[in-house]
Specification:
Butyryl-Coa Dehydrogenase, subunit A, domain 1, Butyryl-CoA Dehydrogenase, subunit A, domain 2, 3 domains, 4-stranded mixed beta sheet, 12 helices, about 55% helix, globular
Length: about 350
């Protein structure tokens, strides 16, 4: 398989990298972390104006599809940029494939934003859909709900599009310092997109999260390389110490595996095995990388005034979204066992 990016994806990646590098500075990140929404509104406007949201739409609607979204998300992860990009991008792709095409122009330019409610608290049942298109139930850790116009909600009968105004919200601070929400629905109006839409949403979300985690791991490793090259002990750079070299080499190996499995899943999002393998690498290797990077920074690695702590927090949050590494392996085992039975 050819994993090289074509010219359009390269141009999109370079544009995203320039925007995030210019706007998501450590000083700006500190400012956003104390804001009411934890979203960088100015950066979000830049993302919209540059057409990065439109690029995430399927090719038949003028975008670059999942490869385009993943290219942008990886650059976002490298800078841990606080904008609701993965949830908005996934929602746009799902709606384009299964829902209301008339929303796509507004989704493409960011005039409206849709977030995702795919998870429940442990022990809770999915939201219940009535025969009259109404939803009742609770969803956990809905990403960046403040300012969203609609929510895609996973329920017992599939995926539903719900106006955000019909939802009751309770703010929740996540590990990554984002502000998520606990969503409560009480006979809320909902438009069904169908059971297949829910499968699409879960698969594309797993791939999108893997893309962000790849960027987070790459950004963290770059910080570690810069730090250990510039800091000296016993008259020589830390980077020349063999034990640190081994740690960082293991990080690079993990990142290479994350990249390969991500692009495999990105080109085959309907292949459950490919998606779950990428999800596992996102959860397991991504978390391992940010742990190692924080470790090689020594005491400064736990200093919240030093940028590396954000990569650790993002990596930890992403690794547990939609279930951790163990959940991905369980699901992969079920898929493989089902194939064995059919064969």
């Amino acid at each position: 398989m050819d994993f090289r990016l074509d010219d359009d994806l390269l141009a999109l990646r370079d544009l995203a990298a320039e925007i995030f590098a210019d706007k998501a500075t450590p000083e700006r990140l500190r400012e956003v972390e104390t804001s009411a929404t934890r979203i960088d509104g100015a950066l979000w406007d830049e993302v919209r104006k540059a057409g990065l949201l439109a690029a995430a739409l399927p090719p038949e609607h003028g975008g670059l599809g999942l490869p385009g979204l993943c290219s942008v998300l990886t650059e976002q992860g490298r800078r841990v940029a606080p904008v609701p990009l993965w949830s908005a991008g996934v929602a746009a792709l799902v709606i384009a494939r299964h829902g209301r095409a008339e929303l796509l122009p507004d989704l493409a330019d960011g005039s409206i934003r849709v977030t995702l409610a795919l998870e429940e608290f442990a022990g809770d049942t999915p939201c219940v859909a009535s025969d009259h298109g109404r939803l009742t139930g609770t969803k956990a850790v809905v990403p960046s709900p403040w300012g969203a116009d609609y929510v895609l909600v996973a329920a017992d009968r599939g995926l539903f599009l719900v106006p955000a105004a019909a939802c009751a919200w309770e703010p929740v601070e996540t590990t990554s310092l984002d502000l998520a929400g606990t969503l409560t629905l009480d006979d809320a109006p909902a438009e069904p997109l169908g059971p297949e839409a829910l499968d699409t949403a879960r698969a594309v979300t797993s791939v999108a999260l893997a893309a962000v985690q790849l960027g987070v791991a790459e950004g963290a490793l770059r910080l570690a390389a810069d730090y250990t090259s510039g800091r000296h002990q016993f008259g020589r750079p830390l980077a020349t110490f063999q034990s640190l070299q081994h740690h960082l080499a293991d990080c690079q190996i993990d990142i290479d595996a994350m990249r390969v499995t991500l692009w495999q899943a990105m080109t085959q999002p309907d292949d459950a095995k490919a998606v779950l393998v990428a999800k596992w690498w996102c959860a397991q290797a991504g978390l391992d990388v940010v742990h190692r990077v924080q470790h090689v920074h020594g005491g400064i690695g736990v200093d919240v005034d030093y940028p590396v702590h954000r990569y650790f927090l993002w990596g930890k949050q992403l690794a547990s979204t939609l279930g951790g590494a163990g959940a991905a392996l369980d699901d992969l085992g079920d898929v493989l066992a089902g194939e064995d039975v059919r064969s």
